[in-house]
Amino acid sequence: MNIIVIFDIDGVVRDVSGSYRRAIADTVENFTQGEYRPTPIDIDKLKSEGIWNNDWEASQELIYRYFEAQGQSREQLGLDYKNIVAFFQARYRGTDPENFTGYICDEPLLLSPSYLEQLTLAGIAWGFFSGATRGSANYVLQGRLGLQSPVLIAMEDAPGKPDPTGLFATVRLLEDGIDKSSSIVYVGDTVADMYTVEKARQRLLQPEKTWIGVGVLPPHVQETTTRRDAYAETLRQAGAAIVLHNVQELTPAKILELI
Question: Would you say 242 and 215 are in contact if contact means Cβ atoms under 8 Å apart?
Answer without folding.
Answer: yes
